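[09:14] KT: can someone run the structure on this one? pasting the chain below
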Amino acid sequence: MKHNGSKIVIEDYKNNFVYKKNETNLNIKFNRIAFIFFIFFIIYLIYTIHLIHLGSRSSKVNKIESTPAAIDNLYRVDILDINGNYLAKTVRSIDIGIKTTDVIDKKKLLLSLKIIFPDKNFKEIEKKIRNKKFFYLEKKISEENYEKIMQLGDKSLIPEERVLRIYPQKNLFSHVLGQIDDDNNGISGLEKSLNDELRKSKKPIKLTLDKDIQFLIRKELIKYQEIFKSKGSAAILMDVNNGNILSLVSLPDFNPNERLNITDVNYINRVTKGTYELGSVFKAFTFANALNEKLIEPDTEFLNLPKSLNCYGFPIREYDNKIPSDLTAEQILIRSGNIGSVRIAQKIGPEKFKSFLQKVGILSQITFDIEEVAPQKSYEFGKCKLATASYGHGIATTILQLAKGYAILSNGGFEINPTLINKNSKKNTKRNRLLNKGVSKQVVSALRKIVSTEEGTAKLANVPSYEIGGKTGTADKVLDGVYSEGKVNTFASIFPTSNPQFVFVVMLDGPQKSKDYYYKYRHRKGGWKGTLYNTAGWTSVEVAGKVIDKIGPILATKYIEVN
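[09:31] RB: done, structure tokens below
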């Protein structure tokens, strides 16, 4: 069909319609409308594709936040102190990586990232995009920046969720908590011994430890370790009635957040793993053993004590020549007499002496909440071993075992087991008694006199109002089976002696004499004129006294029961 002068010409060829363009106003308007619709269609298509892409990224985000099974398998419950403070905590973290093979517009990507991370080195980032297939742009990204990253909709930006084990107190509980490996498995400390429970439990695990007390004790140990230039030090504070450990410090320590590969033996747990000859702290066990066997009373006299003895050619001497030759059994303990202790032990005999040390935990393998515990050494007790062991020579144990033993000596003679785990249990009414009734009071009375009387070796720990009792121990340090010039200075204390609640043991490993410190501490004028001693009475005793003076108010308000 054709019409001359018509605006539209339609030709029919085999039922096919062909539109011929005529440059008319109607045709121009039609084409404009079609073009506009086409533009809208393209915009709609782009927007739809963008939404689909964001949806896929959003599903990826939701997948991240939905706790995948792989993430759950790595999760560990938190560890708290007795007051609910976090000692170990698991947190979820998202890292943002760049898969460089998916980068479409590098300039656009870098420009967008500069807006979000203005402080980053983008020259380095650009270099990584060129040379690496994948790298992390930001680890532990903030929630705000994570949302901004997701809004970019760039498929090269890959979010990865992981779980982090963090230790908010850093070094403070390192030897107790231990470490985990890259697969979140415990490799030491409670992280190892409680590994299965930490993975499966639904509730946090609460310990008996007190963060505030731990902080104060560690602070003082660090201070005095620097003063006395000791190689290391250790301290343990424990409830004598239930074995709850309120503090366990071993120096040097480490930051478990740094995942260090610790191979230096100097970093061992000196409370549980290190074994030491601890010297005269053993004399309290000799005294208690003889009382328990009813072989002596505190006022039993030992007359004409010699200044030295020989044991198969080995000389046994008094540490102080001023110790009298006539002493009661109690005075032998107070004055820390070596010869007198030997005489008391000879009344007991090797078998009963060894049996007693095993009964109170000194020579028995201890079961504890962490695996870093020293194996128990075995000793054969003849006459010579009996003599030297009576004053703590030639026999080694751990600080943990020593604390347990002193707890039994002071709590009425009842068996206890040291623990780090808060079991929320009340006092056990069916406790196993290891000492005869009254022996504990006699021992505690003597320990108090060691601190409170002029003849005692622990006068520097006589802090007013706390009724501290205890026994000093100065021993030659054993290195590779040979006695060295170094010392191990220990003070095992209990307080308050009127109603014992706590045992506190301080050990300094290899302390040195400090003339300047003694001068300053004792406020001497005109220079130092006395003799400097590298003994427990001059070192670890003072540390213990300073610590108890600081932690006493906390203990009084939190842990001492008021009837």
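[09:33] KT: thanks! The chain has 18 helices and 18 strands.
[09:34] RB: yep, looked fine to me
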